[in-house]
Structure formats: C-alpha cells, structure tokens
Amino acid sequence: MHPALAVIFLTLFSGGGFGLMALTALVNDFQIDGGLNPLQTMIALIISMAFVSIGLLSSTAHLANPKNAWRAFTRWRTSWLAREGVFAVMYYPFAFLYLVWVFFTGGTHDAIGLILANLAAIIGLITIFCQGMIYAVLRTMRQWNTPLVPANFYAMGLAIGATWLAAIQQITTGQPDPALIGIAAALLVATGVLKGIYYFWISRPGGPTIRTATGFNRFSVRILDQGHTFGTFLTEEFGHRLPPAKAKSIKILMYLIAIILPLALLAIALWGQVAALAVLAALLVLTGFGVERWLFFIEAQHVVNLYHGRQQC
Amino acid sequence: MRLGLVIDLDTCVGCHACAVACKEWNTSGTTGALTDYHPYGAQPSGVWFNRIRHFELGDYPHNKTINFPMSCMHCENAECVTVCPTGASYKRAEDGIVLVDQNKCMGCNYCSWACPYGARELDRASGTMKKCTLCVDRIYDMEIPEEERQPACVLTCPAHARMFGDFDDPESPVSRAVRERGGYELMPELNYQPSNKYLPPRPTRPIPTEHLRKRGIRQVKDWIHQAVTR
Predict the structure, then answer these.
(1) What is the structure's pLDDT at A216?
(2) Considering only CA atoms, which of A118, A243, A267 is closest in space to residue A188?
(3) What residue ranges define each of the domains in chain B, with the CATH number in brackets?
C-alpha cells in the first residue's frame, strides 16, 4: 500500500487531537490531581482542535478531486469514511463552545463545562472508531481487516493525548504531575503491548492466495507477464512493500522513539523535576506513532498484488 | 437482470484486443477520456478498464499458459459501492451494473482499496475514479443493430472467449455456459459474489506430433539441443 503522507497525517494528528480531548475531559471529570486549571484546559483544547484541523486539512490533499469533498458527508449510512467526516465536524462546535465557556467563565468542571467537554470527548472517541473501521472493513487487506486496527487507533490516540496533556501541565506549572505522567506511561505501555499483538497477528500467513485468485486450486500458479510494460495505478497504489529485515529494524526504531524513550523521559521528568523533558517526550510519541502509521500503510498487502506477481498476500 | 461477462480461459489467446477495443470505445464514452500518461515517453502508462495477465499453471512438462483477462466483476456484494463516502459509486438496481458518477467522485481512492480485482483506476487528469461500465452506453443503444448491443470487448474478441448476458436468466447463453463448463468466481472466500465468471480450460490430451518429425533431422536437432546450453 502506498504510504500517502496525507492519510498518515490525517489519522495521526486527528487521532491525537481526539485523544487529547478525551483525556482533558477525563481529568476534569474526575478532578485527577485537582483537575486542569482554566489556562491548561484552554491550551489543551486549542492543541486538540489544531491537531484535528491539521489532520482534516491534510486529508483533503489526498483527494484527486477536492471540489467534491463536501459530498463525503452524504453516505454516512454505509461508509465509515463518511461517518468519520460527519463526526469529525460534529466535534468542533462542542470543543469550541467548551473553550469559549472556559475562557469567559473559567468553569472547567461546572455542569455546563463538563457536558460540553464530555460531548466533545465522546464524539472524538466515536471518530477514532470510525477512522479505524475505514481500514478494518476492507477484506482486501488482511493486515487491516482485524478489530486490532480500531483498538490500536484508540490506544495511540489516547497515548498521544495523555503525553501531550502531561507536557501541557508541566509547561504551565513547571511542576511534574505524578498522576498525569502515570496515565501517560500506562497508556504508552498498553499501546506497545497492543501494537505487539497486532504485529504478531499480521506475521501469520493467511488470506487469499494466487490459487484462489485465479481459481486454479490444484496447480502451482506463477505469473508470466503482468500485461503492462510500466507501472499502472494499481502497482503505484498497492505495489509498495517492505523487505522483512528492514521492516523489523524500523519497528524496533518505532518502539524506541514512540514508547521506550518517552517512558524514560517521563520518568526523568518526574524524578528530576525537569518539565521540558515531558515536552520532548510528547514530541517523540507523535513522531514515533507517525513512523508506526507509515508502517501500517506500507505493510498492508492488497490482494490485487496477487495479479502482479505475489503468491500470497 | 444481472448482467455480466463470462471469460473462457480455454480459448483466450491473450491478444489484448479486448483491452484495446475497450479503451477505444470508452475513451469517447460516458466515463471518457481514459487518459494516457506520457503515451510517447519512455515509460507510457494510463487508465485501462481491462487488463490481461498471463499465468503459468503446473510445472514443466505438465504446464500450461493461461491468459487471464480481468475487468470489473460487477459484484452482487460490491464493497466499492458500500465504502464510497460521496455516493459517486453505485450499483444499478435494474441490471446490476456498477458505475461511477464522474460528477460526484472526489478521487479519494477508497473504492479501489475495497476492490479485490483491481477493477478501478484513478484518472489523474480528471481526478476521478474510472472503471468498466459494461459498455452501458452501447448495450442499450437502439440506434445500432441488436447483435451489436454488446460490450466492445465481447464484440472484438477474435477467439470468442468473452460472452455477455444475463445471469438471472437460467437459459441465457452465459448461464448455460457457466452450468455446462463449471464456470467459477475469483476469490470466492472474500464473498464479493462477482457476476463475471471464468470457464476453466477443457481437459485435453496432448496432440501426438512425434511421427511428424523426420527421423534424421530430428537426431541432428536433438544433438544440437543438447550441445547448446542456454
């Protein structure tokens, strides 16, 4: 699968933005370590909305005919892509109203504030699910056709949100907050485990083979000629692949950047009282999950590759 | 009605005439033009609704070359239509033809991800997804003689390896061919329920040719074949 930057940015940033919204609502709901003060809440909301906007704007770069993009909201009854668009746009008014409410009243956790925050958070979480389902419904790519995909999207969105919230908290107060750092660390570990389960899952052979693709189940089948001299849309879109050794080293790098280093930095930030390290951790998490998303796309093998020389997808 | 194609893998000679005829008809048809990229350049490429692959079955000496034309299968369970967020992709209720409304498509590629048969190709010039229309602008055209109201690929095939018809009618030529020759679907495990069916090659005995070869020349030839290494 072609790892288009536009789609990587869409899922990475909007997932992180919705995760940040959900964590903000959660921390203010339960007043974890006294909850966020109005300034922290507003910074979190602005970053959340900025992330979602970066994601949605970059997704339009993936469209070959963006003048029809408004039509993408119409088929929400059947298409997860349309549902994602509808919910992503529904998130804005609630997040924005919460921002306005906190700005004018300072009510981060009064009744109206919490209603707005939780509505924005829930809509954001639904959007992450829709985003995961865009990929999980495709039976043509077995690396995507698994419930682990939306589960991983949740884990990563929330982990990005938690590390950024911890960073916001530390930058504004200069004091590391054990509860927020604990949430971030727990979510990072959970994400690493879930992603590990996913990598184990996709390493098993499965899915259609060249035999079922051609219908010759009792013969060995090999391609002689793809029927075209140079690339086609199909080879450009689906022909990408990663040699296993390279994939493994990039996965190790991804785990290092996205999970291990941020965990270490968060620990140092907490024990050494160095607030700036939490910001570095948040940036690393975002970068690392960007690498993860690139792997997610390039490792997906579309069954049409069977007609271009693959024996199994 | 459930219109579709039957491809006879026994008689297909792999000449790509169906693909060329398809391109010729459809580039000026309802979803035309089928853009070519660098047609006279070093690496020409472009949009095609029909692509023919060539496979080898079995191992030498019990092997066989199979020419494998593929176009849109006009699936009953067309996921490309389900996933389309704009409603540009649709399946006609009256005859089962899957089409893309070029005025609605936003070129997100999602339908091509959902298609296991590689039937959909993005036209970079128009920014829209294009695909086989089953020559919908031809098969209902009352201005042309009735026997020509067939897809361009079917009309042009010199080996009569392509048939067009209604699979809902059990006595139509396509239904009979599928029934009698054991026609099958590609990748049935994905449950797209494609309309197009493929007829497997007929079992044949090798035609004896030994006695046709002249004895003396054959020995010289065999000796040369052994002496010359490739």
Answers:
(1) 94
(2) A267
(3) 3-227 (3.30.70.20)
